From TrEMBL:
Residues 106-185 form the PUA domain. This is Translation machinery-associated protein 20. It comes from Mixia osmundae (strain CBS 9802 / IAM 14324 / JCM 22182 / KY 12970). One of its GO terms (molecular function) is RNA binding. InterPro entries: MCT-1/Tma20 (IPR016437), Pre-PUA (IPR041366), PUA (IPR002478), PUA-like_sf (IPR015947), Uncharacterised_CHP00451 (IPR004521). It is found in: Cytoplasm. Keywords: Cytoplasm.
């Protein structure tokens, strides 16, 4: 999705999001990523707990919707892309955001042999998720966004969309299990501000 993304050429429009639309986006984000509603430690000098989504994007802060070619939309706060969406599909966090808050997406792990393919943007094959060194949690349904971690590494190397449920991946063990949508070193990763 972001193999050849250059902001100067690919951004069509950039608009501030109305507060009523922001509320709808917040609701969708919390529905798709329930861990965004988790409590986080209070900021220094404060004793008030906040939820993670409020930490990332306070209600009073402006949000910019950046529409790009190929029907990709980015949610940007203070120039930093936080989430993206393709057509009207699910929202995904950017990898930089997932590195700061790894709990917001379910975690799957690929074996060492799959790492070079994942870093090239390839879809994740079922055998790379079921072999020794891989880890596949129970009960992740199809069409769910997941963080893809590599064996022996601390941070996610990609974000993907489950094409099959984890039970189907284990039983079939053939074909594409996860579609890669954003990975380390793709052009969205390289964008620092918009």
């Amino acid at each position: 999705m972001f193999k050849k993304f250059t902001p100067k050429e690919d951004i069509a429009t950039s608009t501030k999001v109305k507060s009523s639309v922001q509320r709808n986006i917040r609701a969708k984000l919390l529905e798709q990523m329930p861990h965004l509603g988790d409590a986080v430690a209070p900021k220094e000098g404060s004793d008030q707990e906040r939820i993670l989504l409020e930490e990332l994007w306070p209600k009073k802060d402006d949000l910019t919707l950046v529409k790009c070619r190929e029907h990709v939309s980015l949610l940007v706060k203070d120039g930093e892309p936080l989430f993206f969406q393709h057509f009207d599909g699910p929202y995904y966090p950017t990898l930089k955001l997932l590195h700061r808050y790894p709990q917001i997406l379910p975690r799957v792990q690929v074996d060492r042999g799959a790492i070079k393919f994942v870093l090239a943007g390839a879809n994740i094959m079922c055998p790379g998720l079921t072999s020794k060194g891989a880890s596949l949690p129970d009960s992740i349904p199809a069409d769910r966004a997941v963080g893809i971690f590599a064996q022996g590494k601390e941070h996610a190397c990609a974000i993907g969309l489950m094409k099959m449920s984890t039970d189907e991946i284990r039983s079939i063990n053939k074909g594409h299990g996860i579609e890669s949508v954003h990975y380390l070193a793709d052009d969205l990763w390289s964008v620092s501000t918009l």
